[in-house]
Each structure stands twice: as structure tokens, then as C-alpha cells.
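Revision sheet: C-alpha cells.
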Amino acid sequence: MSYDLLFQQAIKFHQDGDFNNAEQIYRQLLETTPHQPDILNLLGLIAQTKNIHQEAISLFYQAIQADDKRPQFYFNLGISLHLWNKPYEALEAFEKSAKLDNSIKETWLEIGNIYRELKQIEKAKLAYTQALNIDNQYIDALIYMALLNYSPFDTLAQLQQLKKIYPQTIQIDFHIGKIYFHQQNYTQALPHLTLAAQHFATHEEANSLLGQTLLAINDNTSAKNIFLRTLEIAPNNLPALINLGNIATTQKDYLSAEKYFLRAIDIDKKNFDAHHNYATMLYHQKRISEALEEYRQALIINPQSAEACNNLGLILRDQNDLDEALGLFFNALSLKPLQDEISVNISETLIIKYQSAPQDAKKIADNWLKQYPNNIFAQHTISALNGNNRTNNQEYTQKLFDNFAPDYEATLANINYQVPTQIRKIIGNITGNILDLGCGTGLTGQLIKSTNNTLYGVDISSNMLQIAQQKNIYEQLEHQDIIQYLKNNTIKFEFIIAADVFCYISDLQPILELCSPTPLCFSIESAEYIDNYQITISGRYKHSPSYVKQLLSKYGYTQIAEYPLTLRNENHIPVQGIIFLAQK
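Predicted:
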């Protein structure tokens, strides 16, 4: 077969997407004419299509060496250099292409894009203007010109205006969706990114951003499918790998999670999220020593991560390395002073340290309060360690349980929490309207709910109430301080329960007065040696049984029964308490 016929056959294969056969013929032709520039350029384009950019660059350079007057060769070289993350070399190639032929709008667009990435905005603007001088309807240049705005608001306004003029241009939707995504406005981002991903089926970034958007709105199933599709397009897409690892961890599919995280780390050994989230997965599996090393690696990569400091501190606290744990927690707090979880961890660690080194614990707590005088956890911890009762605990309790909510039930299961079960045994099957004071996640409500009663719940923690709501056992749930609720209540209740609630209240007189005359069942942490109530180093309150009985009698309760029990285990030590049943 003649050279021309072989060349035409190769071109046909190339146009049909049969790159392997096209390449085979090109290389066969190249043996006959080893410096043929068109063949070298076409082989470079195939390598470019296969993302083998180093080989593509070599082939384009060879084509240019054979014929340095062809602007398209420099353009193709610029594309591969840009994709191979060599912006300055790419810029030089594009500018040489423009020098040979300044009427190619795509060349000016690429020049503008590189200048935009290099933050040289005025030069980018000039390049886009040059492209628009060639074609004033050139939509890509119009879009990227809009993206040069310093204000995302202005950029969004311009893109939305372009969308009105060019309603069929899905590329505009992609950029609008991308802006909404980075603004964390996921509801607005979703339709635009969905449209872009559907239209540009092989667009890596559109699919990746869509997956992350779906994950942000808690549609994990759809997100997982999109991330898997992203990996089909781009097997090394890091957000897809890491988020698939996160989803698998949530689903306790640790084998798959580990596979995704290790792939991500292999691609980018300095990726913070890959190391950090892999460490979290290892921690869930109780592979503590491995988790410890991964968290340390994450902190080496990003020493300013409050989350990594906090998580590493938790492991070290579990290993009883309290001083290093506290150092990490305080470092995390300095980075994110408003994140309550960190303050809770400092408080709990100081309580543990107090057992062996009370003076050191007090000194650290004093310094904490000096540095953060408005921190409610520092204030409460100082009071607890010094035994000073506090009269206003609502803010502390609210923040504590908002933070505690996600792990509340799992934690109680691990400490042999007995109160809801025992209350159920004591009160039996109760009917009518029942008020669950400090209902939390609904643990006690689940046990007492029946077809013969109607439950009402009130709690100071909105996060706890969200979990209770999912159980569908309450007629009504109120986010409110329980004393304020009782003061404003208009519902007639046949019974009131309060499981593990009064240990967060110092003086019980106001609440027992408001509960009267409704029959009442509640628990306390008990201590005979105190007069009325006393804060403990845990930050909770113990109450004297005689003080409680005096109050109940004062407010008209004549039938008072006591049921001593072990409430739970605290640091492997049983916590003693009493359940009271009070009726008139």
C-alpha cells in the first residue's frame, strides 16, 4: 500500500478514535520518513489524548524541529506542557504560536488562562480581549473574562447574565455551580453541576464537584455513584478516592475504605486529607498504633490542623499520655477557639489528671481560664476542680450535649448506663400525657412509650433533639430550658420523668416546685455527706437524699419511694445514685 493510502487509513483510524491502530500506522510511516513533522504531530496528539504528556511533549518538539513555522505545533505543545503542570513553558509555546498566527482565538484563550492561573490578571484580560476581537461571540473568552472579577458576587452576576444570552451553553452552568460550591451553597450548586456532569459526561471536575455537593447534602448513595463514575474518567482523582474512603468508613466497609485511602496516599504522599481520614478509619477499627502514626503524618503535612491536633490528642489521652494530649488540645484550641469539642476534651482530660495530680490540674485550668476568660467550659472546670457550686449551668449543659449528641448513645452503652431501664421497671405502664424532661435522644422515651400514652419531650440541646425526632415516639419536642418550659407550659401531664437530668442542676427547688403536683420519677447522683448539693470534679452535681425528700415534702408529695442503684461506671468506678418516685 502506498504512503498516501496508509496515511489516509491512519487518519481514518484516528478520527474514529481507534488510536492504537492509528499509532501503529503512523510509526510504520515514520520509519520511512523519520522526521516527517505531520506524523510526529499526530503521534503527539495521540499521546496527549492518552494523558502521556511527557511523550507528547517530546514528539511535538521533534515536529517543531522539523518545521518551526507551524503555529498548530506550538499550540499542541502548549496544551501538553500546561497539562503537565509547566505553565511558564506552556505560555512560551502559546506565545510562539500567536507570533506565527495571531488570528487563532483558541491560542489567545490559552494564554489568558495561564496568566489567570498565575494571578497576572491584567495580562489575562488583554489575552481574552484579543480573543474577543477575533470573535466577539466567543463564549469561552466571555466566560473566562467574567471569572477575572475579584468579587465572586460580580462573577456570578456576569455568568448569570451570560446564561440569559446563551441559555443552551452548559459550560456556563458548570462555572456557576462551581462558584456556588465554593461558597458552600450546595442547594444552588446542585442543579448547575448536575446539568454540567450530564452534558459533559467525561468532565472530571464537573463530576468530582457534583459528588462532593451530593455528599455535602447527605445524599451519600448518589455521591458514591458519581465518585465511582469520576474514577472511571480519571482513576487518580483524589477527591473521589478520599470521599469514597470516607463513605466506606461511614458504612463500616473498612476493607474498601482502606483501599481508597491507600490509593490516594500512593498518588500524593503529602495529601493531608488522605492521611488524616485514613487515620480516623484506623481509629474506628481500634488499630491505634497505626492511627497514631497516620495522625502524626497528617500533622507534619499540616501543623495548623485543629482537627488533627484534637484527634491525636484523643489517642494519647486514651494511652494516658495526658500532658502531651493537653498540649495538642490547647494547640487545637488556639487554632479554633470557638470549637466546643476541643474545650470538652480539655475539660475531661483535666478531670482525669486531677485524680493523680490535683494541683497540676488546677494550675493548668487556671491558665486556661486566664487565656480564655469567656470559655464556659474553662469556667465550669475551675468550679468543679475547686468544688465551687455554680448557679447557672444552662449554657454549659447545652454546649456539652450539643457536642456529645452524635456519640451519646454509644458512650452510654459502654458505661453500663442503667437509669432508663430502671425507671421503666419502677413506673410500669403509664398512661396519658407524659413529660420527658431533658429527654435527650429519647432513650427513656423509647422504653415507656405505648399506645396508651402520649409523650412530650423538652431538652436544652438541639442536636440531641434531632436524634430523638428520628425515633417518632414524641407527640411534641421542644428546644428549651426545662425550667422555662415548665413555667410556660399549658398542657396537663399525668406524669413527669427526668432521667439523669438533675445531676446537671445545682438547686432543685425551682424545678420541683414547678413539677408539683404532677407525679414524678427522676434520678440523682447521691451523697449522704453533703448538706444539699455539691459540684463534683466531673462537673456534675451530687444531691443529698434528705435534701431531695425535704423539697418533695415541701411541695406536697406525700408518697415518696427511693430506689438506690448504680447509675453507670465512670472511669471504671461505679457511680451511686437514687431513683425517686414521688406522688401525692
